[in-house]
Design goal:
The chain is 27% helix and 20% strand. The protein has 94 residues and is an alpha/beta fold. α1 (11-24) links the parallel β1 (3-7) and β2.
Length: 94
Amino acid sequence: MPTIEFFGYTEGERSDLLNCVRWAMKELAYRDDIVFVLGAPNQVAGWAGSSRPFVRILTRMPERAKEMGALLRSACDVETVIIGFERRREETSG
């Protein structure tokens, strides 16, 4: 499931951006698989102390990372991360 995380936004900014993200991605065939991480508001600061909010997209599929990132670049800074996934190994009864 593609995951979108918000970093460095106030609660109000994050809510507005979440609506923007949902609108931008409404035509994606896999949109119902997307999940959002809406943790507590936090700050992201650059080296000199300036505010540097961004959205992180995590997915196992590079083509989805590229597609989703392109849809959001006009609204926010975007970081994409390709993640690994391994299914839980089920124990066999012996």
